[in-house]
Amino acid sequence: MTTKNNYGFKSVFADELTAYVDSKVAGGFHAESYTFSLKKFDEYCIQIHLSDKTFTVKNAADWLLKRDDEAVTTHYSRVNTSKNFLKYLALKGYDVYVVRDVRFIDTDFRPHIYTDDEVKKYFYQVDQFYSPRNKKDAVQYPVLFRTLYCCGTRINETLSIKKKDVDLEKGVILLTTTKNGSQRMVVMGEDLKNLYRRFADKTFYLLSDNDYIFTNACGNKLDVKTIYNHHRILLKRAGIPYAGDGEGPRIHDWRHHFSVYSFKQLSDSGLDMYTALPILSVYLGHKTIFATEKYLRLTMDLFPSIKDKIQEKAAIIFGGAENEDD
Fold first, then answer.
1. Does residue 256 register a pLDDT over 80?
2. Is the peptide bond before 249 cis (omega within 30 degrees of 0)?
């Protein structure tokens, strides 16, 4: 029986891929958590002209190789997601070779944590920013970049905010397009909430509930590349050295900055780490607290004064557990 293809799969495994994702959705997961990586597998099957519903050792060996332009985290996600799909096929009796796990190898990369002076200089430039191509940038950039700074959101999550997702009365934003496929809410501080209200007064009357709030000159959702390019312009104008692609300071470093200072604030308030860790982990949208460990260790490195208070408990909680992606 042919399965209705709801996700755009086109390879010989299109029906099986669709049925697999449907089974995950029925179990309470979001389709987006699986379709991104599985579409790469689907494209690979088309690329090698796979016509039979088989997956050989040779196919698996090639599929396991890391591509030259592929990030470590993307390689990890691509292979391990498809591995679970292949296990699903094997259990159903298909002649497929199940690829091995790819172990996530964390790098020694250290994110850029901004100094107080850098934060002031950066946001001064944000507030002065003007683009003749999109005059709305002067109004939306102070809100967009402060959302990253104040809420620790990922850039894709932020650019996917729609008018209906912003509750100005309660001061919360619903994030619906998230990395792990689970919706979550972030809370705005009073200053950010007031900024959103002024932004809403100037722009929201032009939008329907399903429209994105951060838009380009054509009224469409802002793209990540534009933000990356303007981020580098802002760094230059603020006098903050940029080390190059992948070295930073990156847009994503605002998330690290938020996390480190949140840990410090929670620690300074006297909150026990057993209580603080799950709170921040959920707020950041991590699947487990182990994905939050890197922020905790970075906080201890940057603020030795709190290291003695939390180092022993951190060792008890995490032990030798592997990091997850952030």
1. yes
2. yes
Between these two residues, 238 and 294, which has the higher pLDDT value? 238
Q: In what order do the strands lie in the sheet with 184-187?
A: 166-167, 172-175, 184-187
User: How many CB atoms within 10 Å of residue 126?
Assistant: 22
Return all residues near 231 (Cβ < 8 A) that are at least 6 apart: 250, 251
Please give the C-alpha separations between residue 1 and each of 42, 86, 140, 270, in angstroms, as whole numbers. 20, 20, 50, 60
pLDDT (tens digit, 9 = 90+) per residue, 20-47?
A: 999 988 887 777 768 888 999 999 999 9
Q: CA 318 to CA 274: how far, in whole Å?
A: 12
Radius of gyration, CA atoms only, the chain: 22
Q: Which two tokens stand for residue 194?
A: 């007031």
pLDDT classification of 271: cutoffs 50, 70, 90: confident
Which tokens sit at 95? 């002649």
**pLDDT computed for residue 142 by the predictor:** 97
The answer to whether the CB of 144 falls within 8 A of the CB of 254 is: no
Strand, helix or coil at 187?
Answer: strand
- Residue 240 near residue 121 (C-beta atoms within 8 A): yes
Give bridge partners of residue 185 from the DSSP assignment.
174
Number of helical H runs and strand E runs in the chain: 13, 5
Give the highest mean pLDDT range of 70-84, 102-116, 253-267. Answer: 253-267
144/223 Cα distance (integer angstroms): 13
Rounded mean pLDDT, 248-252: 87
Q: List b or e across 89-123, with b for residues whose CB sees 16 or more CB atoms inside 10 angstroms.
A: beeeeeebbbbeebeeeeeeeebbbbeeebeebbb
Region 303-318: mean pLDDT is 58
Residue of 106, 156, 69, 122 whose CA lies nearest to 242: 122
- Contact in structure between 232 and 198 (CB atoms under 8 Å): no
